[in-house]
Amino acid sequence: RNYSRLTDLNIIVCINMAPKRDLEAAKLRRLGIDETMIEGLKKDKEHAERLAKLAANAMSRRAAPLPPGKSAPAAPKEPSPPAQPAKVGKYRAVEDFVGEDISFKKGATIFVVGEADSTGMVQGVAGGKAGKLPMSKLRLITPELLEEERIQREKDIEAQRLKDEEELRQEMERLKLEGEKATSSSSEPTSDGKGGKSAQQLAYEKELEEKFENERKELMAEEDKLKAEAARIEAMLAALDDDDDED
């Protein structure tokens, strides 16, 4: 009976020791990296650039000379040169914000049109919507900021791997104890003949340790894949700035 119990435990090792890991995409999303968001960011950038051009066109119309009055014809003037569109900058949200027209979470990418006004408010685009927001909630995205974020992201990925590894280790120890309880009253002779662990229990624990080591290696391989995928997506995000050079 006890021997059968240990055999049953042995059969479920592959189930209980299976790593409880999310898909790579889900993990990356929790770290703020999502390949699907890139298309949305491209649209946000285009939206911001359209707003900048519309504002420039409006300024040009206001700068154009008024029609001459009936009483005194005005001397012809040279047409004003077209106003240049305001610069569109890419910023990182340092706090959550909820406004009338635009809302976003900390860590979001915001495309800002022009400069802040006298009240510190600026026109921005995020999540397909445009509106006024406080400049104080934004930080300009620079190579230095991206490097800081990369380092922190890699630390987060490594910390998650260590957490998963520790959960696996605890599961292995739990199963070892289950095996010992199953054979504690068994009449099967121990390996040393002095009441130690039985040969069956030792073989069971060895299998658990091998399973744990294989899973640990898989976790480390997954960590490398997550870091590589994060770097690939970050390069795609950086390409948004390269588009500016081509325009």
How would you portray this structure in words?
The chain is α+β, with helices and mostly antiparallel strands. It contains six helices and seven strands, in the order ααααβββββββαα. The chain has a five-stranded antiparallel beta sheet, covered by helices on one side. It has a two-stranded antiparallel sheet with strand order 2-3. A hairpin with a 2-residue loop joins strand 5 (121-126) and strand 6 (129-134).
Q: What proportion of the residues form beta strands (DSSP E)? A: 5-15%
Q: Could you give the count of β-strands?
A: 7
The total of helices stands at 6
String of helices and strands: HHHHEEEEEEEHH
Describe the structure concisely for a colleague:
The protein has 247 residues and is an alpha+beta fold.
Outline the secondary-structure elements.
Elements: H1 2-11, H2 13-16, H3 24-30, H4 36-63, E1 88-93, E2 97-98, E3 103-104, E4 109-113, E5 121-126, E6 129-134, E7 138-140, H5 143-183, H6 199-246
Helix pairs in contact: 1-5, 4-6, 5-6
What are the main properties of this structure?
alpha+beta, five-stranded antiparallel beta sheet, two-stranded antiparallel sheet, 6 helices, 7 strands, 56% helix, 12% strand, rod-shaped, disordered N terminus
